[in-house]
Amino acid sequence: MRVALVHDWLTGMRGGEKVLEVFCELYPDADLHTLLHVKGSCSPTIERMHIKTSFIQRLPDLERSYRRFLPLFPHAIESFDFSRYDLVISSSHCVAKGVITPPHCTHVSYVHTPMRYVWDQFGEYFGPGRAGRLTRLAATVAAPFLRAWDESSSLRVDRYIANSTHVAERIRKRYRREAHVIFPPVETARFKPVAAAQRDDFYLMVGAFAPYKRVDLAVEAFNRLGRPLKIVGSGQDEARIRKLAGPNVELLGSVDDAQLVHLYARCKAFIFPGEEDAGITPLEAMASGRPVIAYGKGGVRDTVVPLEPGATNPTGIFFARQSVEDMIDAVRRFEAAESRFDPAALRRHAEAFDRNQFKRRIEAHLRQDHGPLGPTSWSRRPALA
Q1: For residues 68 and 55, what is the distance between their CA atoms, to the nearest angstrom?
Q2: Taking the domains of the chain in order of start, what are their residue ranges?
Q3: Is 91 strand, coil or helix?
Q4: Which pTM does this prediction carry?
Q5: What's the whole-number mean pLDDT along residues 215-242?
Q6: What is the distance between the alpha carbons of residues 182 and 365, in angstroms, rounded to a whole number?
Q7: Where are the alpha helices (DSSP H) in 36-164?
């Protein structure tokens, strides 16, 4: 079976790339197609694949400003030739699911989200204060075309896999298609709880400084609380966040793996103020035995067990609105009930989402019989006697 993998772009190791890495392990001889590739930015497993890039790779100032070429992405992803493949597996949060495949080829798409830039979070990326006037104007002009393309290209996929029930619902709404849910992988073996005496009193947030992550909300809440907050990450909102941060908020930038593991295990609780499609970092915190304080929408509703009356082995606290007041209230509710969170139970809960579990579920889904989309039809040539 001739297999091709597709991923939007390769510029770093985030949640989508962790999913792609498993696909690369399952199909190490596959060709990997992507809009652009910053060499050395991904794991060795991904970097050693045969990587094919689009014409986007040749555009100027690419590494820093590739997102400004968003209107060109549909044409770029459609320019790849898949005529010699039997199976295409796309990992998509932008345009990867829109590849054009021939009739004999089956396309299975693992969707992290429908194109967030032009649907639910257009305002977060291109609203006032988020982008310059010319960028907002260009995005407003391009958005109707991109939405129409995103909807029409959804018909090209034979089977959808969603990374959460939240994303499956969005696929149903935007594309009017059903999706099988397989949660993204968490490398729980990297993390472990520590004794209470080894823990500190700081709160922790980890993630890119993208608008929808709502780092600003966490900073403003902790400025008012006066509690210590450490933030790991960087990104497009970094300059604004640095201006907001008070003396109790420490921006750590990027840290190495050992330091990240140390921070997870020793924090008081993990802060998650954005509406995420799935959210791997809360599960990494739980694998470290630490509870989560999260905005109660999106993928966390699949992965966090909220502290509610009658709840056994809760793993976190939800707040209902993305407001400073609601986040402050959630932190105070957590501190009043901190003894209810058992590190061993948190760890056991996270292990259900382990990377090996993800790999087994993906492999089983790709191999099971789905009638005309089953393995026997992936290569529609008669078998040799």
Answers
A1: 15
A2: 3-185+354-378, 188-351
A3: strand
A4: 0.81
A5: 93
A6: 9
A7: 44-47, 62-65, 73-78, 122-126, 133-153
Joined tokens for residue 47: 């970097």
Q: What percent of the chain has pLDDT over 90?
A: 73
CATH class, range 3-185+354-378? alpha beta
- Portion of the chain with pLDDT greater than 70, in percent: 92
The continuous run of DSSP H or E covering 258 comes out as helix 257-266
3-state secondary structure of 141: helix
- Express each pLDDT in 29-88 by its tens digit: 999 999 999 999 999 999 999 999 999 999 887 777 787 788 899 999 999 999 999 999
Residue 231: C-alpha distances to residues 11, 56, 190 (Å): 21, 32, 20
Q: Domain 188-351 sits in which CATH superfamily? A: Glycogen Phosphorylase B; (3.40.50.2000)
Smallest CA-to-CA distance from 273 within 335, 206, 214, 205 is with 214
Q: Using CA of residue 69, residue 72, residue 76, residue 78, what is the dihedral sign?
A: positive
* Structure token digits, residue 293: 């304080």
Contact 337, 307 (CB under 8 A): yes
As given in the structure block, the two tokens for residue 13 are 């190791």
Q: What residues contact residue 66 under an 8 Å CB cut-off, 6+ apart?
A: 9, 11, 35, 36, 56, 59
Domains 3-185+354-378 and 188-351 share a fold: yes
Which pLDDT score is estimated for 198? 93
Average pLDDT along the chain: 89
Which pLDDT belongs to residue 372? 40
pLDDT computed for residue 115 by the predictor: 85
Burial of 320 (0-12, 13-18, 19+ CB in 10 A): exposed
Q: Tokens 């009658």 identify what position?
A: 310
